[in-house]
Amino acid sequence: MNWLTVNIISWLLFFFGAAFPVLILLKAIGLTGLMKVTRYESYHSFYYKMNPAVKIMLGIIVMVVASVTIWWIGAIMTAIILASYLTLKDGKRKFITGLFLTMMTIIGTTWAFAPYTPYVILEEAFHTGSLTTLWTWPSYFTVMGYQPALTSQGIVYGFQISMRFAAVSLMSLVLVMTSTPSQVLRSLNKVGIPTSLTFSLVVAMRTIPRIFEYIDTSVKIQFMKGLGSNSPAFLRPFYMLSGAFSGIVPVIVFLVRGAKDTAISADTRAFRAYSKRTYMYPMAIGKIDKMAVSFMVLMILLTGIVVMLGFGRGIAYNG
Amino acid sequence: MKALEIHDLKFYYMGREEPAINIEHLSIEDGETVLITGRSGGGKSTLVNCITGIIPHVIHGEFEGQVEVYGHDTMKTQLSKLSTEVGIVLQNPENQVLNYTVEEEVAFGPENLCLEQDDIFSRVKESIETTGTSQLVDRETYTLSGGELQRVAIAAVLSMRPKLLILDEPTSNIDPEGTARVFDIIKRLKEEKTLIVVEHKVERVLPFVDRIIVIDQGKILLDIKSSQLPHYVEKMVEMGIEVPIHYIYAKKNGIDSEDMDTIREKLREKNMIPEPPRRAGDSRSIMHASVKVSTSEGKELVKGEIDLEEKHILAIMGRNGAGKSTFLKGVMGFLDMDLRCEMEIELEGRDISREHMIKRGKEIAFVPQNFDLTLISKTVEREVEYSLKKRKIREHGERVEKLLDMFTLSDLRYRDPLSLSLGQRRRVSMASAMASGVKIIMLDEPTSGQDYYHKQILGKELTRIKEAGYSIIIVTHDSRFVYRFADRVVVFNNGRKVLDGTPESVFRESRKYSIIPPSDFVLRNDEHELVNS
After folding, report:
1. Strand pairing of B300-309 and B285-295?
2. What is the pLDDT of residue A29?
């Protein structure tokens, strides 16, 4: 293969890792899609009935299990949590968005590890002395921290690492989509976290979907004013990304102007009058929560067994 | 008993040499309903913040004098204690409402007061009943219309059971139907509480306020009983305050009456009925847009069409949720990915229905309600050149100069757009949107939250732009603005276009769709001639 072809393919592969997740984010999910998976909608399935504190605990357990066990346990958890999206309101749409987010996580993480991981680690992880080279980079790529070649073991290794993140990110979205900030506030206060701290979380939970909405407006206006007008259509997602960055300052200024009203609204309704609050509907532990806690205990026990059987974290990842 | 007593109040914001508010004495009796009005930036909000205790407890600066609410010195009393004496409903409910569900929002205050569960329940129930929001209890707050959200914001404040309730421009962001419902609540509360209403719409609140206070440059310029208003009409107009048009004509023509029908009759006798505003005559159609939008499940949201004529101002009106904004978004290709849209848009005989918003933007400019979101450049000049540079239009200097001049922005060219005043920021946004040589300008709710003075300026700006050859579409709830400046009006209801014509013809039937004709129109037309619902 001649020098030019090698360089072109290498740079295409280089950009694939950075660009493809962005393409998924902006083209398949869109800013409005992100808005929908970061916003609460009332519904009646089990996640909505669960105490937010239990959901937070579940998120922590998922994180612990994913980080101390072998990759395929993380993969199984990812699949289960993703499937559980179908029980949410507008479940099919949320499942598809979750699927795209998972793809984004997998591709992004794999590409963040595959070309960089030193051969010595891969050899130890895969108990092999010979790695399978898929593509040899031009020598100057080592300046960016790349290994001389991309190996199949590097890709598998990156994929396995992505399984540590995928389940946790899906689980955290479950909390945001199925609990109102007020419910989170009640639960966190009950475990002793100060109101002023939890209130910041409440305001953040309410603001995040609005940020996506406003950035979406800003980007669309920039397109109308000619952003990307002299470039081919396939580059639009990247212009969209650049427009989103440009829109951050006006969006923040806009939100800060409104934040004064938010502070006035809270302070003139006796917020922080006392160190604690009472609640119209105190957060109770229901049947579903008890079942969830039992499930978590079971998960911890199984994790212990799995680790003892040699499927624990660390090298070698593939058992 | 005095509800409010102010002595020698002065407040300086940090770094300012002039006081934002300077009031020697003001008192309001228990049970009184007072209208506070005046130009934007005149000090109304500062005064209100002094009364609620926000100044000095939350907003810091140099505070002098004394403010007492039901005997509580706001300086010495904790804000949480004050919150049970005085409550405030803010202009923009989107910023005021903190919670995701209506019930949680209304319960927020009582929960902060650490009340017993039963007490919280009874306060929530009572507030929801008073504001007529019981059917909204299980809704998420972000799904509510502006009017519904404002009523929820009122309920959330009422649940604190304040004796003094302040409503700071409570209707500036909502439709006429929502406005009417908010005013109904105010009428009901008048019997129970001391009310301070900060409002530009003098005409609408006049029937139920006892007193009018005008504030400008931090000072009380006028403090009169509402019955005295006809004697102060000229002064109010001079101060840039919107007063009912029939009062002005009555005063001008020496008619001693406040009744619209009597004034109209007398004016007719004297042959002094004013001419209606001049409208642009028929001209060639520049754009025909037919848009049908439905959800992915097939539920139809909007189905309508408009014709825009050259050098015309076309106003689109209708209740919140009537489909006006969705229609505009369809025209611009702004709709969410999960909505289905069928459209036919013909611009000067060319079909642009399949064109991406980048191409549509060459012909159509859009200024959203939150126009601050469009200001992304570091200086005004760069903001105006943005689209010219992006579209690689060479030798654009002359065009930029022309736009800066047209919008009186030349002196501000090196300023950061986000640091300018509201009116200036809107002008930058408009100039920037128009720079690449568009023919059509669309503005979503440009009158929202603006006082009479600024609305007049906006109307004149739009007229000037129209006369310079542009065609304009505005979405607005302000019927008086439409009557004065629009050439044609389209009314949407439940996603369909229901009325289309000159303001004169549309206002004859618009009450059916909760659009109240302005006093300018009613003065020229007998009310009984209008078609009522």
Report:
1. antiparallel
2. 80
Asked whether the beta carbons of B101 and A42 are under 8 A apart, the reply is yes
**Chain centre distance of CA A313:** 21
Task: State which amino acid sits at residue B487.
Answer: D
Rg (CA), chain B: 24
CATH 3.40.50.300 domain extents, chain B: 2-228, 285-363+439-529
Q: Where are the beta strands (DSSP E) in B369-520?
A: 440-444, 471-475, 488-493, 496-501
A180 to B386: CB separation less than 8 angstroms, yes or no:
no
CB B111 within 8 A of CB B124: no
Cα B5 from Cα B27, distance rounded (Å)? 4
- Burial A1-26, CB ≥16 within 10 A → b, else e: eeeeeeeeebeebbeebebebbbbbb
Asked if the model's pLDDT at residue B307 lies above 50, the reply is: yes
Contact B487, B493 (CB under 8 A): no
Bond preceding residue B56 cis, omega within 30 of 0: yes
Could you say which residues from 122 to 141 on chain B have a Cβ atom under 8 Å away from some Cβ of chain A?
124, 138, 140
A257 to B372: CB separation less than 8 angstroms, yes or no:
yes
For residue B210, count CB atoms less than 10 angstroms from its CB and return exposed for 0-12, middle for 13-18, buried for 19 or more: middle
For chain A, positions 28-67, list CB contacts with chain B under 8 A. Answer: 30, 32-33, 39-42
Give CA separation, A92 vs A31, A84, A86, A170, B380, in Å: 18, 10, 6, 15, 45
Q: Which chain B residues are closer than 8 Å to A278 by Cβ? A: 111, 114-117, 120
Superfamily (CATH) of domain B285-363+439-529: P-loop containing nucleotide triphosphate hydrolases (3.40.50.300)
User: Per residue in A13-25, pLDDT tens?
Assistant: 988 887 788 777 7
Q: Which residue of B has its CA nearest to A224?
A: B361
- B47 touches B8 (CB < 8 A): no
The rounded distance, in Å, linking the Cα atoms of B124 and B155 is 8
Q: Is A225 in Cβ contact with B332 (below 8 Å)?
A: no
How close does chain B come to A277, measured CA to CA in Å?
5
Query: B366 and A221: CB-CB below 8 Å?
Result: yes
Cis peptide before A316 (omega within 30 of 0): yes
Tokens encoding B207? 């029937």
pLDDT, mean of residues B171-193: 84
Is the CB of residue B104 less than 8 Å from the CB of residue A180?
A: yes
Q: Report pLDDT for B533.
A: 41
**Chain A, chain B: beta-carbon pairs less than 8 Å apart:** 211
CB atoms within 10 A of CB B384: 28
* Range B2-228 has CATH code 3.30.70.20: no
Do B361 and A40 lie within an 8 Å CB cutoff? no
The greatest distance separating any two alpha carbons of chain B, rounded to the nearest whole angstrom, comes to 71
Give the residues across from B195 on adjacent strands: B33, B165
Coil, helix or strand for B205?
A: helix
pLDDT at B5 > cutoff 90: yes
Residue A136, φ and ψ in degrees, nearest 5: -100, 125
Query: Which residue among A217, A274, A276 sits closest to B368, beta carbon to beta carbon?
Result: A217
Tokens of B239: 């101060």
- Whether A264 and B57 lie within 8 Å, measured CB to CB: no
Q: Using the CB atoms, write b or e for A223-261: b if 16+ within 10 Å.
A: bbbbbbbeeeeeebbbbbbebbebbebbbeebeeebeeb
Query: CA–CA separation, B418 vs B72, rounded Å?
Result: 39
Residue A165: is its pLDDT beyond 50?
A: yes
Q: Does this complex have an ipTM over 0.85? A: no
Return the pLDDT at A182. Answer: 79
Distances (CA, A) of B141 to A42, A283, B136, B150, B275: 11, 21, 9, 10, 45
